[in-house]
Amino acid sequence: MKISLEWLSDFVTWVEKDPRAIADRITLGSAEVEEVEMQGAQLEGCVVGEIVSVKKHPDADRLSIAEVKTDKGTKTVVCGGTNVRQGMQVAFAHIGSTVKWHGGNQMTLQPVKIRGVASEGMICAGEELGIESLFPPSKEDGERPIVDLSDRKFKTGTPLRDALGLKDTVLHINNTAITTRPDLFSHLGFARECVALGIAKWKKKPVYKLPTFPSSALPFKMKVDADDQVSRYCSCLLTIDGLGQTPDWMKRRLEATGWRSVNLPVDITNYVTMETGMPLHSFDADDIKGDVHLRLSKKGEKITTLDGIDRPLPDGALVLSDDKGIFDLLGIMGGQRSSTKPMTKRIYLHAAALDPVTIRKTIMATGHRTEASTVYEKGVPPITAEVGFIRAVELFRELVPKCAAASTLDSWGKNGTPKSLTLSVPDVQTILGVTISAAEITRILTAIECTVKKGKKDTLTVVPPLHRLRDLSGVHDIIDEIGRFHGYDRIPEAVPMAEVRIPARDKRLHTMRDGLKASGHFETVPLSFISAALLEKSGLSAADAIAILNPLGEETALLQLHTYPQLLEHASRNIAKVHGALKTFRTGNVFAKGKPEQFELSTLHAATHETGLLDDPFLHAKEDILHAAEEAGYELSVEPMDKARPAMHPGRAAMVKNGQDIVGVVFEVHPTVRARFDLPHRAAVGALNLTVLFAKKPATRMAKPLPLFPSVTYDETIPRKHADQLGPLLDKLKKGATLLEHVTVHDLYAGKNVKPGEFSATLRFVYRAPDRTLTEEEAKKAHGEVMKAIV
Fold this sequence. Notes:
- The chain folds into six domains: 2-39 and 168-202, Phenylalanyl-tRNA Synthetase, Chain B, domain 1; 41-163, CATH 2.40.50.140; 222-413, 3-Layer(bba) Sandwich (Phenylalanyl-tRNA Synthetase, Chain B, domain 3); 422-490, Phenylalanyl-tRNA Synthetase, Chain B, domain 1 (2-Layer Sandwich), CATH 3.30.56; 508-693, Bira Bifunctional Protein, Domain 2 (BirA Bifunctional Protein, domain 2, 2-Layer Sandwich); 712-787, Alpha-Beta Plaits (2-Layer Sandwich), CATH 3.30.70.
- The chain has a seven-stranded mixed beta sheet with strand order 30-33-34-38-37-36-35, with helices on both faces.
- The longest helix is centred in the middle third of the chain and has 18 residues, at 382-399.
- It is α+β, with helices and mostly antiparallel strands and 791 residues long.
- It has 21 helices and 41 strands.
- Strand 10 (112-114) and strand 11 form a beta hairpin.
- The mean pLDDT is 91.
């Protein structure tokens, strides 16, 4: 974004005269100024010269010797220009001036002899002085024509910078610094800022009033099919007698701010864009056939834009169309068919405030960004559409030959209604950390054109101006403005003070993870997103899952119902790479329709060979998950599940309980599900609902001293049926004698010499007395009492 200080001077009188000081204050208070460009600085030492005589160089056919009258007398110059002639006024560079040699590298002119003739300066082409945009080459003049100033009749010797009016200072503003300020994409917006910053005063505060329009209707009907996308719209028909010529002052200002002069109607719309922040467009009305529709495009429709490129359009781009098709891509670029041409006699002029989100989507879909779209995607305030339209009509009537309004004003939409905000003066002082009076706050807010009234108990009622509706929507925005214009550099520095306390750490999950890793498990960390196909493959219903509104793809279209499907998927890819068993676990949030979010831990034990009782995945999955919970302070139990779910093997599924509360499941994966994941042997899953489990207080683990007296150990092998549960038996045995310290399952066996449907369980009994060494008789007697409990 480029801002001309000369242009700003139309509106303000400068209190601060130094351009760099102006740039510094704008940087501190409004937006970052990246560069201060002093226009014409490269023309130092260059003047308007007059060619007195021209003759051929005696030793070079393509060179001429010219005598040039300058402010320092007549100079002899060896010149290669093709259009040089006697009496011509030219751009002359004295010795010591800096030029671009043939438009390339910079060089400082020195006295030199060319083929034996001394040359005392240089007659320059536009590209050699960096002003080629003002003097573009023509086919008649050749490749690098000399700058011809003859038709302008300057006084010989006039500094070239003064003659061409290149005395402006241009500030280069960083666009990202004004992303939330669409009003600052204009000279009018920066004029307001400079006044509020105190570096300027209003010279002529612009007042925009609509002229009188005739009652004649437009030559076509405007049919609006997307009025929710356009908050404000103004248009009319203008008649002209030729395009006219763009005045030099307008060309200079457009060039200074980065625009190329095209023709007067186009230049006026571009000029208004830079002055008011309203990108608008003028159409050749005679190219519009039938009624005009303001609508959203359909995918596959096309437009040939002003740059001559055929552009396919996406669904939902704002366009204007007639009976012949789309002729304007609103907010981006006009169409070539309806552009103003040398023979244009009737102009349809319009200005529209458009939905910024729609414009941004169109930019992304088409890959086409323009100066207009850069402003539109920030959100042009509705009032700016009206202001820009009025200013454009004013310039058309002033500059274009015999321009007159030929239709009534087609105006609809509203300029918006500002929201009244209640501002607490003490809150402003607390938040900014500076003492600032209500009077100073009122002065600052009035300077940015807010309406301020005194309220109750140190409050002010603030109403933002219409051009700031988008960014002054809350009290926090108003306080930010007060800080900006008061000056952040004037706010005393203060080191933030706060009490730092180490938060209480919940180590339960870490303890469980460490326990699982110690038992040989590896942790996986997949996303919480899942596909419907993976859920169905795992025996779960995708209908129970919550869909993501804007998924990255089908693989991540749903939120996970449980954490174990990704473990099965991981196992299917890695089972062939391990020996013995693949043991993995993971944690994550799980989601289901109509249920609160839960936190879940899942483990998977997948065998790589045929297994027996000792290496059965189900038993190991149960043992590992119970041990991990025990490490975190929870004693869990396992009970058979009455009805297995589709993913579970019938008869090999159990509920995990803490007291009477179900906190998880352990199950062998159903053979059908296992086959879908190419798991050749048994696999088991353990899953704990940690949201439910961690809601309970864990038991405090107490350290006990090592026993002082030795124990007596007996092993007993007993036959059992597969339908029998060892857990209840162990509980019963523990109550059999006071000397029994503990009883555990030491070994399991099923195979040779054991009947089908049965197995052998070896139980280990440990006896100990706390106050003495047990005798063999005491131990045998206690063991005999315990064994009576075995039926």
